[in-house]
């Protein structure tokens, strides 16, 4: 190619890699005698990347400008993306030790999968690198072709070389019918073409007609859309642009949403089940329980102060309230909170017992004991209670020492040092079990035999017990790039429609005395084009067989 | 025409390189992952049992042992004496041992350490933020942190006195060489 003579016989100096002379359309690379259908891609102009002595920049450019490379990149990406679907991705788990999980669940193969990093395929450097390379390929492939093509279509010559006309796929090479003059014939054909919405350029004894050129830009507009789409996908790695967070929200406690200043509280969670009448008989027989509706009444807060303070409670301001149901998320400031799962195991939050005089039974007052962050002193009537020990899940170890066996308030026990009338001056201990089952199990009345002759601590009714009876599992999502993904997809769709539903049709006519040479080209739908040619020639009573003028072949 | 083309080419390639770099670098760094051996520890700020606010970054320059524990956890209880004797042995040699309690009340923690005879500092992770930042799963989990703030070793489960000594010796040797 390096020694190719790029100067056409018409005198035009073409760029290296040109297939058809930019000026007159004469084929430059083949023998003059050939009658094969011309290669009309990009109108025969040289692509930008076709250069004589490529430097490093050119080589990089040329690499990305290759459609072959683009296809290879896409295939590799597709394979990579499908590998990521073999096992669940790490990001889909709430709390997961990936180094153990894949081995335990899927065996050695799973472990290899994890070690290869396929458990986070879509966040891996090589996958993102592939996306970036596809993006580069899209940009460069497009620019490499669209600019020369634009130039070629922008300044087309009306009068083309005979070889250019005769080697089109649709060719009419015949004498005009008797009784019609050359110029008149061109005018009549012209007005027929105009009716078919062709744009005409006439020159002495030559005519060029063209329509729907814009459809040639369809693929490039499609590419612009894809590039925006890709950029939006890549933009998700900008901090704060993308979040997919799954967490449990116990009722009544605001929980921070990581990397934001927001806290979300599950105010109340309710679940409704299908009744037996509503379910298929088979399900009833199997004893299945099917949830019909689950709903979390949620409040979203913004933290305004003490957000990262290790001790102080954060200052929260309510910003939104919503009843979250499946497919009906809470939406605020780009955050979307979806219902995901639930857990109805009840959990003790606080008790509010009363202090009674043992002999008279008179209630001296009540006090609230929180299970977490328990206050250390309580004043009830004439008595002072000082919290000395606390066990959330009380048990006795092998030495008979009290200890807690879990951090959950399954069997809470509190040791208060009580001071007041009738008790010893330095105080007497009272071991209090809020739950009835524990009172019996650990013999509360025996442990507190002496002090219970003076006072009794007890809850009056279940109203004095605060129970968090639900944990709602919610999925917090944020996707700032999402609108851009839609924009990209929409532009890409516009480009596809432009390219698919319209065809760029051109006809070149040249008169030599009474002899007409017509070449016609389209980028698709040759059937339509050859019929159009036959139709307009009928205007001058020139009958051509639309099948005969199509020389077939597969070159667009 | 050639020169202008070259500038445009270089500009386009540069833009692709910059955007690509921004996209790929975070995935290489994995910045919001929990610390692993060799990575830097996140800065945590907690209240000590005595009421002081402590920040991990203030201890840069000392060898640290961060022991995450809870009173209900039997292996945590079993390893406490080993931690305590290591504290007595190494505290004057630039080693700082800290117990980080998983969300329990100060009263519960102080009762416990009194009973166990533990004297090394206790930080209270009352909001469980430190446990989250360190990606703590089973208790106890012990992080051995070098003076430069990098994780030297992570031990999940009970630490024996021998392991404790071995890790500390390694870090002291590395720091003095």
From TrEMBL, chain A:
Main location per the UniProt record: membrane
Keywords assigned by UniProt, alphabetized: Cytochrome c-type biogenesis, Membrane, Transmembrane, Transmembrane helix
GO cellular component: membrane
Signal peptide: none
Subcellular location field: Membrane
Gene Ontology terms describing biological process: cytochrome complex assembly
Pfam families, per the entry: ResB
Keyword match Transmembrane helix: yes
Transmembrane listed as a keyword: yes
Ranges where the ResB-like domain occurs: 67-430, 435-533
Residue ranges of the TM segments: 69-87, 125-147, 217-235, 481-502
Membrane topology per record: Multi-pass membrane protein
Superkingdom of the source species: Bacteria
InterPro entries given in the database record: Cyt_c_bgen_Ccs1/CcsB/ResB, ResB-like_domain
Name of the protein this chain belongs to: Cytochrome c biogenesis protein
Species of provenance: Paenibacillus aquistagni
Automatic annotation (TrEMBL), chain B:
One annotated GO biological process: cytochrome complex assembly
Coiled coil: none
Alphabetical UniProt keywords: Cytochrome c-type biogenesis, Disulfide bond, Redox-active center, Signal-anchor, Transmembrane
SUPFAM superfamilies: Thioredoxin-like (SSF52833)
CC annotations in GO: cell envelope
A GO MF label: oxidoreductase activity
Superkingdom: Bacteria
Record localization: Cell envelope
InterPro entries: AhpC/TSA, Thioredoxin-like_sf, Thioredoxin_CS, Thioredoxin_domain, Thioredoxin_ResA/DsbE_sf
PROSITE patterns in the record: THIOREDOXIN_1, THIOREDOXIN_2
Record-linked Pfam families: AhpC-TSA (PF00578)
Name recorded for this polypeptide: Peroxiredoxin
């Amino acid at each position: 190619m390096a020694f190719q003579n790029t100067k056409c016989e018409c005198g035009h100096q073409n760029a290296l890699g040109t297939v058809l002379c930019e000026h007159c359309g004469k084929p430059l690379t083949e023998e003059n005698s050939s009658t094969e259908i011309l290669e009309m891609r990009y109108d025969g102009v040289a692509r930008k990347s076709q250069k004589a002595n490529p430097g490093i920049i050119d080589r990089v450019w040329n690499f990305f400008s290759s459609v072959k490379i683009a296809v290879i990149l896409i295939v590799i990406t597709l394979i990579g993306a499908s590998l990521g679907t073999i096992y669940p991705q790490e990001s889909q788990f709430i709390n997961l030790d990936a180094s153990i999980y894949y081995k335990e669940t899927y065996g050695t193969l799973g472990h290899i999968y994890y070690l290869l990093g396929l458990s986070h395929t879509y966040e891996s450097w090589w996958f993102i690198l592939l996306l970036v390379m596809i993006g580069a390929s899209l940009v460069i492939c497009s620019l490499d072709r669209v600019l020369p093509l634009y130039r070629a279509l922008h300044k087309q010559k009306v009068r083309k070389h005979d070889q250019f006309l005769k080697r089109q796929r649709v060719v009419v090479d015949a004498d005009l019918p008797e009784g019609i003059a050359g110029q008149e014939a061109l005018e009549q054909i012209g007005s027929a073409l105009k009716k078919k919405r062709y744009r005409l350029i006439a020159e002495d004894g030559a005519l060029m007609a063209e329509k729907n050129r814009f459809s040639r830009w369809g693929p490039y507009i499609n590419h612009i859309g894809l590039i925006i789409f890709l950029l939006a996908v890549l933009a998700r790695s900008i901090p704060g642009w993308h979040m997919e967070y799954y967490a449990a929200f116990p009722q009544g406690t605001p929980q921070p949403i990581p990397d934001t200043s927001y806290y979300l509280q599950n105010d109340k969670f309710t679940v409704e089940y299908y009744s037996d009448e509503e379910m298929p008989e088979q399900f009833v027989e199997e004893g299945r329980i099917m949830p019909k509706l689950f709903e979390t009444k949620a409040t979203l807060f913004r933290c305004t102060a003490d957000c990262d303070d290790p001790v102080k409670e954060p200052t929260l301001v309510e910003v939104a309230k919503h009843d979250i149901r499946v497919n009906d998320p809470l939406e605020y400031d780009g955050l979307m909170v979806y219902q995901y799962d639930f857990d109805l195991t009840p959990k003790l939050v606080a008790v509010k017992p009363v202090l009674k005089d043992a002999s008279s039974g008179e209630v001296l007052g009540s006090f609230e004991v929180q299970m977490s962050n328990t206050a250390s002193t309580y004043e009830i009537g004439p008595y002072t209670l000082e919290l000395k020990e606390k066990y959330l899940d009380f048990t006795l170890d092998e030495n008979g020492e009290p200890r807690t066996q879990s951090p959950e308030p399954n069997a809470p026990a509190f040791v208060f040092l009580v001071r007041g009338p009738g008790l010893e001056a330095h105080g007497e201990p009272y071991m209090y079990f809020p739950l009835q089952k524990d009172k019996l199990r650990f013999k509360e009345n025996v442990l507190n035999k002496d002090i219970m002759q003076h006072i009794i601590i007890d809850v009056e009714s279940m109203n004095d017990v605060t129970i968090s009876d639900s944990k709602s599992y919610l999925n917090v999502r944020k996707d700032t790039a999402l609108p851009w993904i839609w924009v990209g997809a929409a532009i890409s769709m516009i480009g596809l429609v432009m390219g698919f539903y319209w065809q760029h049709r051109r006809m070149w006519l040249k008169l030599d005395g009474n002899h007409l040479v017509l070449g016609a080209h389209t980028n698709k739908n040759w059937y339509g084009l050859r019929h159009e040619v036959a139709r307009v020639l009928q205007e001058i009573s020139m009958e051509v067989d639309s099948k005969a003028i199509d020389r077939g072949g597969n070159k667009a | 025409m050639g020169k202008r083309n070259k500038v445009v080419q270089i500009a386009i390639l540069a833009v692709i390189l910059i955007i690509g770099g921004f996209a790929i670098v975070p995935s290489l760094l994995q910045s919001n992952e929990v610390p692993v051996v060799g990575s830097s520890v996140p800065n945590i700020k907690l209240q000590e049992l005595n009421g002081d606010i402590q920040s991990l970054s203030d201890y840069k320059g000392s060898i640290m042992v961060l022991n995450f524990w809870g009173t209900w956890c039997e292996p945590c209880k079993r390893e406490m004496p080993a931690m305590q004797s290591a504290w007595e042995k190494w505290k004057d040699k630039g080693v700082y041992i800290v117990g980080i309690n998983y969300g329990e009340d100060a009263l519960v923690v102080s009762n416990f350490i009194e009973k166990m005879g533990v004297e090394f500092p206790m930080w209270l992770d009352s909001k469980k933020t430190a446990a989250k930042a360190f990606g703590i799963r089973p208790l106890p989990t012990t992080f051995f942190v070098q003076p430069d703030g990098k994780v030297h070793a992570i031990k999940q489960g009970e630490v024996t006195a021998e392991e404790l000594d071995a890790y500390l010796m390694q870090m002291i040797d590395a720091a003095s060489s």
